[in-house]
Amino acid sequence: MSMQSVANASEPTTVWLEQSEDRYFVRELEKNDGSVVKVNQCLKGDVGHVVWDAAIVLAKYLETKAFLNSATGLNTLASKNVLELGAGTGIVGLVAATLGAHVILTDLDDLQDLLKKNIGVNQTLITGSATAKVLKWGENTTDFLPPPDIILMADCIYYEQSVEPLVNTLKALSGVDTCVICCYEQRTEGVNPVVERRFFELLLQHFKSEEIPQDKQDPEFNSPDIRLLHLQRVV
Fold it and tell me: Greatest CA span in the chain, whole angstroms?
């Protein structure tokens, strides 16, 4: 399905809110059970203040059969410890939290208010837990150990200077049993191919990678331009 179709299928409801000098609008994502996760996006801000298509694809992937416990009928994320890197608005981690995971949504300091706001908006849907914390890639990760069961990251590969710190953070946070689920849009313009190539040059020295085909993703929310990978630490 094209990303135009994904955009249409998840068309955001626009609600203007005045708080101080900030203006928000709301993006809604309907889950398979009919409940609706709502996240505020900032009208102005850096890349982390909006919902990107790769985040939608990853969030909906968490509801596929790959995460279904056939014996219990529950999502296998239930009770798992999950950490999201570069959470932005938090939509991916929030979906995981509504599926029963205990989620730490991490990003830079200037996104903490937005993350906390979005946790609050979805509190009634959360069956696990969700907290927001500051984590700058490449810096100390002691506060986030022991390693989580799952690390989520959507569209984190974009700045050349952040590639090495991101890989170092993944190495520091990942145990032998940690599954990293990485989703990103392949972009062919500018320095994007160089950044992507450098990321994988560094990453594959320490992780093995398995690409998830489109037919294993959500049937509606997927795109040939968006790659979805499972990464596992090599020791």
Answer: 50
CB 25 within 8 A of CB 38: no
Cα–Cα distance for residue pair 92/111, rounded to 1 Å: 15
Q: What H or E segment, with its residue span, contains residue 83? A: strand 81-85
Residues in the chain: 235
Give the full edge-to-edge strand order of the sheet including 36-42: 17-19, 22-30, 36-42
Stretch 172-187: mean pLDDT: 96
Output the CA–CA distances (angstroms, integers) from residue 186 to 8, 157, 212, 225, in the order listed. Answer: 20, 9, 15, 6
Integer CA distances (angstroms), 193 to 17, 77, 113, 164, 186, in order: 37, 33, 32, 16, 8
And the tokens for 182? 């990485």
pLDDT tens readout for residues 207-216: 999 999 999 9
Q: Is the CB of residue 4 less than 8 Å from the CB of residue 56? A: no
Could you report the per-residue pLDDT of 118-131, keeping only the tens digit for each? Answer: 999 999 999 999 99
CB distance 160 to 194 below 8 Å: yes
State the pTM of this model.
Answer: 0.90
Helix (H) or strand (E) holding 203: helix 192-203
